[in-house]
Amino acid sequence: MNLGILFFLILFGGWTAGKLTQRIKLPAVLGMVLVGVAIGYFYGNSLPASLDESSSFLKTLALIIILLKAGLGISRSTLNRAGLSALLMTFIPCIFEGAALTVILNYLFGFDWAVAGLTGFMLAAVSPAVVVPSMLELQSKGYGQKNAVPTIVLAGASVDDVFAITLFSVCLGLATAEQSVSVSSALLAIPVSIITGLVPGIVTGLLLAWLFKRYKMPTVEKVLILLTIAVVMVELGEMIESAALLGVMTVGFLLLERAESSAVELSSQMGKIWFFAQIILFVLIGMSVNIEVAMGAGLTGLLAITAGLLFRSLGVLIATQFSDLSFKERIFCVIAYCPKATVQAALGGAALAAGLPEGEVILALAVLAIVFTAPLGLIGINVFGTKLLSRDN
Questions:
Q1: Is 59 within 8 Å of 239 (Cβ atoms)?
Q2: Which of 44, 51, 71, 356 has a CA-to-CA distance to 229 between 20 and 30 Å?
Q3: DSSP-assigned beta bridge partners for residue 143
Q4: In sequence order, what are the residues at sequence separation of 6 or more whose Cβ sits closer than 8 angstroms to the Cβ of residue 322?
């Protein structure tokens, strides 16, 4: 397929499908994902080879844009209201689901413990690419602001992946036995990853706040500088395995604190860029889904994923137990923590690439998790967000 035609299908097809799903009271991103699934299913064998090289960067860039917008909308007072619950939401649900899935997959699929562990924590990662835009939309409409519910979910979802990916890497190392893996040093890598992601974000945020206050420049130039630095941060973060996306959100937060007028301008511009970026992101996520592979996991795979979600839900309820959130708000947090897409799309084939005999089944489980939880989570957030969260006028 010609690259120009593909670009037209992604942008125009994704936008059109988004409008159609909105007409039937479903989230627009669901239509975008379905368009991506259709493109991948009908044209998968004829897609340009260059797409594989660029799709990863395009998805990362879209994620950077939405996380910057999220950071630019979180004030210190809102973060203070989120408090302990935001911290607990970063790891308790992930550990509950990952540990439960490890046992379940060992029993249902006969995976050894290391393979069950890497599969469980790969499946446990929540998707910021799906969750963050939904939270920002609710936040912009004033829902859940009193107890900072969207902020709790935003903060938790942005760090949840750090735990999931780190523990996935530990188990993959154990499963392949290609390297000596110290569990204690691997667990230590989690706070190290968070710190090495936060510190560059803090330094960058402070420097940009000073720069934007000291020198007058057009907003478009500020956007260019911010996006360029954020992309470099993420690229370097991948090289040193740091939580760079958390650092990106921190940049936005500090800009709002130290250079509020510039932050407001930048947030507005990021919203306009996000109009295009979200279409590309969700259509590409849909294109990474292979329906035939997903069906290979069967009902047993669906049972395992559902059981994992139940344990994640229990983790969410425990993490929010001592907060000021009402029971309805806590149930909403459970729903908002369901969608999976980004990490599963990225890591689903890692076990197969590493030569593990269970690789095909693991890939099928990853695809099934995306097909099952992404639409379910999106619909749940869209339908119940306005019913379970109070609106502050």
A1: no
A2: 51
A3: 391
A4: 84, 85
Q: Are 64 and 231 in contact (CB under 8 A)?
A: yes
Q: DSSP secondary structure string, 50-109?
A: HHHHHHHHHHHHHHHHHHHHHHTT--HHHHHHHHHHHHHTTTHHHHHHHHHHHHHHHHHT
Helix H, strand E, coil C: the string for 190-233 is: HHHHHHHHHHHHHHHHHHHHHHHHHCCCCHHHHHHHHHHHHHHH
- Return the structure tokens found at 45: 């064998």
Q: In the block, which residue shows the tokens 């137990």?
A: 321
Q: Which residue bears the tokens 């799309």?
A: 345
* Closest by CA position to 85, among listed 312, 257, 321, 303: 321
Which residue type sits at 80?
Answer: N
Q: How far apart are CA 31 and CA 382, in angstroms?
A: 13
H or E stretch including 173?
Answer: helix 149-176
Token pair 């413990």: residue: 113
pLDDT, tens digit (0-9, with 9 covering 90-100), for 264-288:
889 888 888 888 888 887 888 778 7
Would you state the structure tokens that stand for residue 22, as one six-digit string? 């909105």
Question: What are the structural domains of the chain?
Answer: 59-388 (1.20.1530.20)
Q: Which two tokens stand for residue 168?
A: 């996935």
Tokens 């069967």 correspond to what residue? 298
Question: Crossing angle for the helix pair 28-43 and 128-140, nearest 10 degrees?
Answer: 150
Tokens of 253: 């937060």
Task: Name which of 106, 59, 125 is nearest 348 in CA terms.
Answer: 125
**Cβ–Cβ < 8 Å for 172, 118:** yes
220-224, long-range: CB < 8 A, 24+ apart: 220/269, 222/262, 222/265, 222/266, 223/266, 223/269, 223/270, 223/273
Q: What is the pLDDT of residue 183?
A: 59
CA distance 59 to 80: 31
Pair 353, 148: CB distance under 8 Å: no
Mean pLDDT of the chain: 84
On the question of pLDDT at 127 being above 60, the answer is yes
CB-CB neighbours of 96 under 10 Å: 22
Q: Look up residue 14 and give its two tokens.
A: 């994704």
Which tokens is 361 given?
Answer: 């089944």
Residue type, 349: G
How far is it, in rounded angstroms, from Cα 80 to Cα 105? Answer: 39
Q: Are 378 and 196 in contact (CB under 8 A)?
A: no
